[in-house]
Amino acid sequence: MEEEVFGLRSIMNVYIESDNIISPLGFTTEQNFSALLECRSGIKFHKDKKYSQNDFYGAIIDDISLDDHFSEMADPIVYTRFEKLCISSITGALKQSSIDVSSDRTVIILSTTKGNIDYLSESSEDMNPKVYLWNTAKFLKEYFKSRNDVLVVSTACISGISALLMGQRLIQSGIYDNAIVCGCDIFSSFVMSGFQSFQAISYSPCKPFDADRSGITLGEGCGTLIITNNQPVNRKKNIKISGGAISNDANHISGPSRTGDGLTKAIDKALGEAGVASDKIDFISAHGTATPYNDEMEAIAFATSGLLKSSVNSLKGYFGHTLGAAGTIESIVTLESMRQNMVIKSIGYETSGVSQKLNIAKSNIQTKLTHCLKTASGFGGGNAAIVFSKVENE
Fold first, then answer.
1. What is the tens place of the pLDDT at every residue in 17-50?
2. Using CA atoms, how far apart are residues 260 and 299, in angstroms rounded to an integer?
3. Taking Cα atoms as reference points, which of 174, 267, 285, 184 lies closest to residue 229?
4. Confidence (pLDDT) at 233
5. Nearest to 201 by CA among 302, 51, 347
6. Residue 271 has pLDDT above 90, yes or no
7. Domain count, the chain
8. What pLDDT band is residue 252 in, cutting at 50, 70 and 90?
9. Does residue 195 sit in the same domain as residue 244?
């Protein structure tokens, strides 16, 4: 049935067809989710001076494992670390999909904050062209033989959800039938030093929403989702993007609003677009960076939006903060949670450190999940929320 969505003609639902996660926990969604079920974290203690002069905790993908995995597709020496992650994850999602990546009805959307940021460290008078995100877009277009330009979304830590919503709306507008949404960022000394300058790096594996939290733990990874207007027929129940919204609280270049107003607006608009009441949200995958201000702001927003009864977790204790990949990786975990009706334990959480009484998952919870909310907030005051809903085969 047709309906108006932001002035565009929406002629169909947008479904999740396939997905893939690459992280320190594995190279498929299944491997990653199995690790989460066992409460295994990808965060390790590191002494690598390439990233920091001080010892640190981080979630970093092993170089040898990545090259071994990638060698099945191409010569690892030819490609950058960032390119290898994107190619591997997109290829993994395509293997489970029936869409034609070279069709003019398919678009690739890249979500990242830094791309090939490690090339900034090269000592050269001329900047390596791989640093520029538009060149990465051109590279992916050529590699996958896409007939359409690859679109880049780089809106700090809300990039992943922003890219998913862009894909949904491009499909609803009738411009495309399918979107391949890939979120990726790598661990780098540039990002590490930036967060160290804010004194935001945790001295131990991060503890989202916990009273003993002391900051973020950085990570790297790649998550790809293929979304489509064609309902997949290989599942008894499918999952669609039922609503989403983006807001900006215009509060501070790096700090979130203390009132949670911006995130509240994004959540309420997302729920309204989805047609789902707040008491019908079974589970929230929070941004949960484990910084004092972010976690408190999110808690206030959840309370204001009437979501205190919903189960909540943060996946940062498993993957670290993967920046532009966080929204895609954590959305994929949310989808797999819905398929298996399982809320994953929020690792690192023991005692509440926020003012609102959130229903944080202190263990894995087997429960029916029909409507789930994923949130994100980032530098520049950005906030994003997306609602996923199960649908019966039509």
1. 999 999 999 999 999 999 999 999 999 999 999 9
2. 8
3. 174
4. 73
5. 51
6. yes
7. 2
8. confident
9. no
CATH number of the domain where residue 296 is located:
3.40.47.10
Answer whether 153's CB lies under 8 Å from 109's CB: yes
Q: State the pLDDT at residue 308.
A: 98
Name the token pair of 109.
Answer: 């959307």
Provide the 8-state DSSP code for 23. B
Share above pLDDT 70 across residues of the chain, in percent, rounded to a whole number: 95
Indicate if 218 and 360 belong to the same structural domain.
Answer: no
Q: What is the pLDDT of residues 153-202, one digit of tens each?
A: 999 999 999 999 999 999 999 999 999 999 999 999 999 999 998 889 99
| Tokens encoding 74 | 């191409």
SS3 content of the chain, % helix, strand, coil (to 5): 35, 25, 40
CA 148 from chain center: how many Å? Answer: 23
One domain for residues 212 and 168: yes
Residues 242 and 223 in one domain: no
**Which domain range does residue 64 map to?**
3-228
Where is the domain boundary, 228, 262, 281? Answer: 228
Residue type, 131: V
In 3D space, the residue among 280, 390, 394 whose CA is nearest the CA of residue 16 turns out to be 390
Residue 185 bridge partners (DSSP): 221
φ, ψ for residue 377 (rounded to 5)?
Answer: -140, 155
pLDDT of residue 4: 46
Q: Indicate the SS3 state at residue 34.
A: helix
Least Cα distance to 116 among 152, 71, 67 occurs for 152
Domain boundary among 228, 248, 264: 228
